[in-house]
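Researcher: Checking consistency across runs. Here is proline dehydrogenase again:
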Amino acid sequence: MHLLNTLVARAIPLIPRALIQKISRRYIAGDTLAEALARVQQLNAQGFCVTLDVLGETVSTLQQAKATADDYIEVLDAIQDHGLQANISIKPSALGLLLDAQQCEQLAQGILDRADLHQNSICMDMEDVSCTQKEIELFARLKARKGNIGLALQAYLQRTYLDIEPLVREASPLRICKGIYVEDLSHLVPDAWSNRRAINEHFLKHVGRCFDTGSFVGIATHDAALIENIVELVRRDGIDRTKFEFQMLLGVCEPLRDKLLGMGFNVRIYVPFGKDWYGYSTRRLKENPGIAGHIAKALIGF
């Protein structure tokens, strides 16, 4: 089955967009904010916190970037109005990072100010390596002005060992994830692309640095073995459960997320919504170990 999953994952670019969209419904809350809010209410009622993501990545005009920023401000207002347990995750490329870094910073600052007004927070997603350094520098400037911002780091990048140190010294809130973008092997820890479990030891070290320094950390993984190791570490070292949370994607490994919640851990669900679904969906289908089964069901109309 592992071989079949691998072959199907590599064939994702050849799969019709309509089929990708059908398969991806389980991972996306809908096209509209109203649909996303309804899903957040359901998850909150079950005991989960949420982070909302307006789908969309690199933009081609500054007008598109401004529209994305306006969308996020609308989301923050809606979270406040509905009394939801949710924050937001932003991608700087969707705010024009690669077009005009100064304009991107202004837009991000506006979002951060609105979050601060509502006593909310944002997390800056980490994107591909063309953005990594720019995003770390942007994060540092934003956090110097407002403290209600966190940053995602990718355990499969070698540079994360260096990037994490100044961040934990400043007690920056972090999200540690494995990383999913296709990168040149020179950027990656050994065997990261051929064997996702090769990333686990690096992931554990980065989470451990957060624990050691008291930096809040979002542990973003669906790897059951890795989660088991982290739970053992938490119990062994008596880590305060208010200093971390597990984070999982909407529609992925639901029995595992329910188990973690039942064990008394804080769990946050990453809930994307919007019409610009293709890039997000293809990356998640490549990452999901059950991809072959989902595609087979879609092909036969289940």
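Researcher: Does this match what you'd expect to see?
Model: One thing to look at in this run: The chain has twelve helices and eight strands.
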